[in-house]
Amino acid sequence: MDLTIIAQEFRWEKNCGSLARAMANFGFGKLVFLNPKCDFKGKEAIMHAKHAKSILLKAETIGSFREALSSFNTVIGTTAMVGNDYNIPRCPVSPEELASMLPGGSAGKAAIIIGREGEGMSNDEIAKCDFVVTIPASKKYPTMNVSHAAAIIMYELSKHSAIQKAGKGINQATRKEKDVIMRLLDDAMGKMQFSTEEKKETQRQVWRRMVGKGMLTRREAFALCGFLKK
Fold first, then answer.
1. Distances (CA, A) of 91 to 29, 88, 165, 181, 184
2. Binning pLDDT at 50, 70 and 90, where does residue 59 land?
3. Would you give the distance in Å from CA 145 to the centre of its chain?
4. Is 49's pLDDT higher than 60?
5. What is the Cα–Cα distance from 106 to 85, expressed in whole angstroms?
6. At what angle do helices 197-213 and 175-190 cross, to 10 degrees?
7. What domains does the chain contain, in order, with CATH numbers?
8. H or E segment and range at residue 19
9. What pLDDT is attached to residue 192?
């Protein structure tokens, strides 16, 4: 899996450096800063990165959440605030479950968004991700430092790296192909009768999560599109 870590609107150089260091610890090298609020190549960032400063120096930037979505086939959000079966956008997977879901190979271009320090990702942003991951922490204090949370997620992913290699060569569905599926589903739901608009939107959210969590191959995506067009 071609995996990128996206740091969303980080404000503190030390967290930028600590994140890069954690990435190096577990063998990850692709870092992107989404609308950064500090100098992620600054002196303090470099100091906290230690021997991982090369990750910071080659890190890229993107300016909007929309750009993040369009740049990757699979976008995974992170949250400390989880929901239940009725709060579909915030119904998460654990880091261990995430590791078993991600396929091997380089064809599946994916990104994990590490949310803002202090406030995390918004409900709207989480709803637009393919799915979200959360760390089962203490209910009394579930919110972790961004670099610590990222380290736990990357640790679980690194444990499964050998398993992931078994899927090398399988082409994952692209972002555009999954968007086509959702448009076809929207067309189908538009022909159905729902008692309320809320129930229609719930169906849409359920299908979006199913398409995202399913980690569809391109062949599966084509088959599903063909079925929905009939």
1. 29, 5, 28, 21, 24
2. very high
3. 18
4. yes
5. 33
6. 150
7. 2-167 (3.40.1280.10), 175-229 (no CATH)
8. helix 13-25
9. 87
